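Q: what sequence does this backbone want?
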């Protein structure tokens, strides 16, 4: 899932089991809350 705002974009990885349980929300929600670990890779 690609999440974008005015500062840029972030790839959000949704595990397959979560995606299957929440498919409608993942595909259609105008706002999504995510909890997890941030990994930053420069260059």
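A:
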């Amino acid at each position: 899932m690609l999440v974008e705002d005015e500062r840029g974009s972030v790839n959000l990885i949704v595990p397959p089991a979560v995606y299957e349980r929440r498919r409608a929300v993942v595909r259609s929600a105008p706002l999504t809350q995510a909890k997890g670990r941030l990994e930053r890779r420069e260059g």
